[in-house]
Prior knowledge:
- There is one protein chain.
- With 208 residues, this protein is α/β, with parallel strands linked by helices.
- It is 40% helix and 17% strand.
- Strands 1-2-3-4-5-6-7-8 form an eight-stranded parallel beta barrel, surrounded by seven helices.
- It is built from nine helices and eight strands.
- It has one domain (7-207): TIM Barrel (Alpha-Beta Barrel), CATH 3.20.20.70.
- Helix 1 (19-30) packs parallel to helix 2 (46-61), helix 1 (19-30) packs across helix 9 and helix 2 (46-61) packs across helix 3.
- InterPro entries: Aldolase_TIM, ThiamineP_synth_sf, ThiamineP_synth_TenI, TMP_synthase.
- Keywords: Magnesium, Metal-binding, Thiamine biosynthesis, Transferase.
- Condenses 4-methyl-5-(beta-hydroxyethyl)thiazole monophosphate (THZ-P) and 2-methyl-4-amino-5-hydroxymethyl pyrimidine pyrophosphate (HMP-PP) to form thiamine monophosphate (TMP).
- This is Thiamine-phosphate synthase.
Amino acid sequence: MPSLGRLHLITDTRPGRDPLAVVRAALTVAHANLVVQVRVEDSATDREAYDLTRRVLALCASYQATCLVNDRLHVALAAGAAGGHVGADDLPVAAARRVLGPTGVLGATARAPGPAHEAVAAGASYLGVGPCHTTSTKTGLPDPIGPAGVRAVVDAVDVPVIAIGGVTAARVPALRAAGAYGVAVVGAVSTAADPARATAELIEALTC
Ligand SMILES: Cc1ncc(COP(=O)(O)OP(=O)(O)O)c(N)n1
Ligand SMILES: Cc1ncsc1CCOP(=O)(O)O
Ligand SMILES: [Mg+2]
């Protein structure tokens, strides 16, 4: 597998957002450092998820950036994405690995060392770990684990750890110090007045 990008931009498809404009802006700054994860609302149809993924893939191709699909691995495969991301309500990691095959990029959500170890043993290529901080993007999450919680997972696995949840450029140094390989964001880029600038600040914090 080529090296994983360090900035994961998760599409924001809430009403009033323009996910493709945000992805376009982020790509002009982050290039191949960007992983775009296509995440749609649960109420979206597979056709909508597929169409958005195809459009994101077309944008990513010009920058050699990676495109993954959240939850819906059949959409990932049908659209030609590099892989997908699963959590507790999705296919189990071992089943997801069978769907994607040995070379697909497979992310799994984990919040603690035990489940993290199990996810890697079952075939996860990377882990999404959080929520690290309070987020308003997703409801129903457990309490934030903070950088110390990230460190506990990092110490338990040998795959890249992507910190998620309330991540901002200002919070990246502490997450990197805790061993995070990269970060995943929705709001920090999607709700920024200038998404390209917000992306640049995140990349700077991730690579300095
Ligand atoms: C990089 C990354 N980490 C965690 C998640 C969350 O996945 P999940 O727990 O399945 O929740 P939903 O995103 O499906 O609501 C993620 N998507 N990406
Ligand atoms: C999908 C998801 N899973 C844990 S936090 C989160 C949302 C992260 O969004 P933001 O970067 O706006 O906090
Ligand atoms: Mg999920």
